[in-house]
Design brief:
The protein is α/β, with parallel strands linked by helices and about 425 residues long. It is built from 10 helices and 18 strands. The strands form 2 sheets. Strands 1, 10, 11, 12, 13, 14, 15, 16, 17 and 18 form a 10-stranded mixed β-sheet that branches. An 8-stranded parallel β-sheet has the order 2-9-8-7-6-5-4-3, covered by helices on one side. The longest helix has 24 residues, at about 215-235. Its EC number is 4.1.2.42. Belongs to the DSD1 family.
């Protein structure tokens, strides 16, 4: 990738045009006055632990992993995931695919239908230029199948068929077919189309509704059970490869249910199960701390992503104002979660502080009587749903547990 120098556009970083590869040699510390605040950080030890947990889980259960790269949009972090055994990466659209194709990733699953002429032309050119490149696409309608067949995929100068997967969905959800009959109709359309090859099924269970976690897990299991029935039918009718058909489900909350349904119940090599969990890499202090199948196990995953902000004002008793808001930290799943306070060069864990609201650049904190915050204190903010924090920062420092900066990773949203 080409953005290899730290510049004034990389907010929070010290000035100076330091080469990205030399960030770790500057002797910087995130919290000792070297960085402008607010600042985001990635804890390297937490990333390593989380990588190892998912690597070992996939090996133990004989499943593949194509982590959803939209979580971080960082080639440097995806490279670490691939080095830890990931089978490929998942993206949401062709713009995201462009980032990782440019970075040299050789297997990409695009977890949405692709129908635009510019997108299809680009992907066809990439696959013609690189015989080893594998791009998987989704179809959930006969119209999508026709779009792929009628445009550039399967052009005469590229005899390889385009691999596609049927996307399954649930009532009220996003994309995906809603009935077995429709899945069969689309499978037949793929078989009749020139230049296309049906290689598997795909679905996303992470947003299945329910009143609480137990009910959501029951509904997810029902959706996966129906998906398994569709898989059986397609295999029985010879519409999928007899060996190695791809079955891809599994966000960061319910991948254990995917393993139970598709790996524990299917022996041998008839199918390959591909999880697409992305947020396992950083975990978090909120959403995934509550829902990850790893939570409560030994060892547990660790939250790797955090934001630090200064106390700018204490305008009235029990209230403090931090210099970080919606422009800096996720607020779509939970408000930021204070977990530590730094004063006089010492960092202490804290419980009881609560962010009660955010503006674009400020967070309002409720301070109970047994705690105190002072102007100039630093507050560490935990994240809930890391994706929407990553997309706010172009360059993120990587730190030790003592906040020594050992490097930095770029994002490409």
């Amino acid at each position: 990738m080409t953005d290899d120098v730290v510049t004034w556009r990389d907010r929070a970083f010290p000035d100076g045009g330091v080469p990205l590869a030399e960030v770790g040699a500057q002797g910087w510390n995130l919290l000792n006055g070297d960085f402008h605040l607010p600042v985001v950080a990635l804890r390297d030890n937490a990333i390593e632990r989380n990588l190892g947990l998912m690597r070992d889980y996939c090996a133990r259960h004989d499943v593949l992993l194509a982590p959803h790269a939209k979580t971080t949009m960082s080639p440097a972090l995806v490279e670490r995931q691939l080095a830890a055994g990931a089978w490929g990466v998942t993206v949401a659209n062709v713009q995201q695919a462009r980032v990782f194709l440019t970075a040299g990733v050789q297997r990409i699953l695009i977890a949405n239908p692709v129908v635009g002429p510019a997108d299809l032309t680009y992907l066809a050119a990439c696959q013609r230029a690189d015989p080893d490149l594998q791009v998987l696409m989704l179809v959930d309608s006969v119209e999508t199948v026709s779009a792929l067949a009628d445009r550039v995929i399967g052009a005469d100068d590229d005899p390889r068929p385009q691999s596609v997967m049927i996307e399954l969905g649930y009532s009220g959800g996003r994309g995906g077919v809603r009935s077995t009959e429709e899945a069969m109709r689309i499978a037949q359309a793929v078989h009749e189309a020139d230049g296309l090859q049906l290689v598997g099924l795909e679905g996303y269970e992470g947003l299945v509704p329910g009143r609480d976690l137990d009910e959501r897990r029951r509904h997810v299991a029902e959706f996966l059970g129906w998906s398994a029935t569709v898989l059986h039918d397609l295999l029985d009718r010879g519409m999928l490869p007899a060996r190695g058909a791809l079955v891809s489900f599994g966000g960061s909350s319910y991948f254990d249910l995917v393993v139970t349904q598709f790996r524990e119940a299917w022996t041998g090599d008839r199918i390959e199960v591909v999880l697409r969990s992305g947020c396992y890499l950083t975990h978090d202090h909120g959403l995934y701390a509550r829902t990850s199948p790893f939570t409560g196990r030994d060892p547990e995953p660790l939250p790797a992503l955090e934001v630090w902000a200064e106390v700018l004002s204490c305008p009235e008793p029990g209230r403090a104002i931090l210099g970080a808001g919606r422009r800096d930290v996720s607020t779509d799943a939970d408000l930021p979660l204070p977990f530590a306070v730094r004063r006089g060069g010492r960092t202490q864990p804290v419980e009881g502080l609560q962010v009660t609201g955010v503006n674009d650049q400020h967070a309002m904190v409720s301070v109970p009587e047994h705690l105190s915050l002072e102007v100039g204190d630093l507050v560490g903010l935990g994240i809930s749903h890391p994706c929407t924090t990553f997309d706010k920062w172009r360059l993120i420092p990587v730190v030790t547990d003592r906040y020594e900066v050992t490097g930095a990773v770029r994002t490409y949203f």
